[in-house]
Amino acid sequence: MAKQCIGLDIGSSAIKLVQLKPSGRSMSLQNFGIEPVPPQTIVDGVILNHGAVVDAIKSLTRRIHLKGKQIALAVSGNSVIIKRLTIPAMEGPALDEQMEWEVRQNIPFSRDDVLVDYEVLVKQTPTGQMEVLLVAAKREIVAQYQQVVRDAGFQPMIVDAAALALQNAVELGIGFAPGDTVAIVNVGATYSTLSIVSSGRPSFNRDLGTGGNTYTEAIQRTLGVSLDGAEAYKVGGAFAAAGAAADVVPQEVHRILWQVSEQVAEEFQRSLDFYMNDAIDARLSRIYLSGGSSLVPQLPKAIQDRSRIPVEIINPFARVIVDTRRFDVEYLRVNAPVATVAFGLAARRPGDSE
Ligand SMILES: Nc1ncnc2c1ncn2[C@@H]1O[C@H](COP(=O)(O)OP(=O)(O)OP(=O)(O)O)[C@@H](O)[C@H]1O
Ligand SMILES: [Mg+2]
Fold first, then answer.
1. How far is CA 128 from the centre of its chain?
2. Same domain, 352 and 301
3. Ligand 2: distance of its center to the CA of 201 in Å?
4. 19 CB under 6 A from ligand 1?
5. Which of 130, 190, 279, 345 lies 20 to 30 Å from 154 when distance is taken between CA atoms?
6. Per-residue pLDDT, 281
7. Same domain, 150 and 120
8. Are 209 and 235 found together in one domain?
9. Ligand 2: distance of its center to the CA of 281 in Å?
10. 153 vs 37, 55, 240, CA distance in Å?
11. Cβ of 237 less than 6 Å from ligand 1
């Protein structure tokens, strides 16, 4: 059996790494780590400072004594497009030809500039249609991410779309019930990724332009502090709201954390409403939250209050065997939601399609 890939999620604020190993019917955690990325290194999903990302990967992988070379990574942001299409049922060369046409219709980039993959979700619906998931990513961006991995001394085996890695993580870590429609929201630093999954199949994907930086910038602006100071206030404020060290964080920070959480919840609700208007099977049973900014305690509450749908923070390691002598269990528990995309990537095998 092919070995698992190492899951590497290169984010604009931090790199997350997860390595898993099959263990009986379950998986065991082999390695885990998070490494900060300096500001302005990655902007809008584009790597502006190649050396800084290479250095971060090298320092992370050395620090955690990573063994293994084969990496699965993800791309996200404006250069990635995921669409679920309904087309007349067909197969073979006719389908390939149809998909070429669909790419030209649905992808706002020149055909030569994108890498394209598609997956048949439903071969034939009762009305003689088929459902296909079309994934396109800008060639140049994929090449950039592959190159940082190579220059850090690793082999990029798989490039996935972050939204699909996210779905993979929920499927493995929690599972999808047949007939159930759920939303998965990964709130990172720059932006948030929303995926709606229906009966285990991707149904709708959208990137939202708010994330952890929206909080930090609001604190910086309002309190007139540095970006680092604002970040410390945010994380401290988040902990305070969770019941610790409340006295060291200005009340103002709490107010901002609430305000921005409500803004994120509102933006998210608009996308949900957009989806609900279109979908026939639209009855969301749960919203799963992941990413570093899911640690802002006001956020799950704001989303739940607005949507009136139960919100659950993802712990991708819930079913994973963890050697408590090797890993800091508390660190892992706190950071599990941050590692969701990396976990979804770590479940991939080198021979899997992209
Ligand atoms: N304990 C915490 N409380 C509040 N916010 C936190 C906490 N820990 C991390 N964050 C925030 O989470 C964000 C980082 O999350 P994550 O690692 O998912 O983002 P990223 O993948 O680097 O960003 P992106 O995907 O947008 O490029 C940062 O904005 C950071 O400030
Ligand atoms: Mg991210």
1. 34
2. no
3. 22
4. no
5. 190
6. 60
7. no
8. yes
9. 29
10. 18, 11, 41
11. no
Atom of ligand 1 nearest to the CA of 14: 22
Containing structural domain, residue 154? 1-80+139-174+315-354
Could you give the C-alpha distances from 278 to 84, 215, 272, 282, 285, in angstroms and in order? 13, 31, 10, 8, 17
Kindly state if the Cβ of 20 falls inside 6 Å of ligand 1. Answer: no
The reply to whether 73 and 90 lie within a common domain is no
- Ligand having the closest approach to the CA of 190: 1
Q: Tell me which residue of 149, 133, 208, 196 sits closest to 170, measured CA to CA.
A: 196
CB distance 235 to ligand 1 below 6 Å: yes
Question: DSSP secondary structure string, 166-213?
Answer: HHHHHHHHT---TT-EEEEEEE-SS-EEEEEEETTEEEEEEEES-SHH
Structural domains counted in the chain = 3
Distance 188 CA to ligand 2 centre (A): 5
Global pTM reads 0.94
pLDDT tens for residues 144-193? 999 999 999 999 999 999 999 999 999 999 999 888 999 999 999 999 99
Q: Is the CB of 212 under 6 A from ligand 1?
A: yes
Residue 207 to residue 81: CA distance in whole angstroms: 10
Bridge partner list, 161: 75
Answer whether residue 349 shows pLDDT above 80: no
Residues 130, 122 contacting (CB under 8 angstroms): yes
Instruction: Indicate whether 252 and 267 sit together in one domain.
Output: yes
Cα–ligand 2 centroid distance for 292 (angstroms): 8
Ligand whose nearest atom lies closest to the CA of 13: 1
- Tens digit of each residue's pLDDT (9 = 90 or more) over 27-38: 999 999 999 999
